[in-house]
Amino acid sequence: MNEEMGNCKEANTFSLVPHTPHMHVLGSKWVFRVKLNADGTLDKYKARLVAQGFKQEKGIDYLETYSPVVRTATVRAVLHFATMMNWEVKQMDVKNAFLHGDLTETVYM
Prior knowledge:
By secondary structure, the chain is of the alpha+beta class. The protein contains two helices and two strands, in the order αββα. Strands 1-2 form a two-stranded antiparallel ribbon. The two termini are 17 Å apart. The model has no long low-confidence stretch (mean pLDDT 84). It holds the Pfam family RVT_2. Residues 12-109 form the Reverse transcriptase Ty1/copia-type domain. InterPro entries: RVT_2 (IPR013103).
């Protein structure tokens, strides 16, 4: 939990503001996961603070939804092309990638 809060503070994802009557405040909760290695041994414990987005109201908390997701067929085509061209393929993971998105709306949680 401390690591999650530290990542949020480091990415400057929130600021504390006084509550006013016009705010539509969303609840939040902690989600805990146990991550295992391929052999079933403990890798790490993960904790994420998430907003209860199901309580958002369209037109008040958001205007539209958009979630960029790559299609499996696209990934397969790119990998096929890379294989045909003898390109080196590398994988990377951005830790807490969701914290790096830009949000134009103000969300109170």
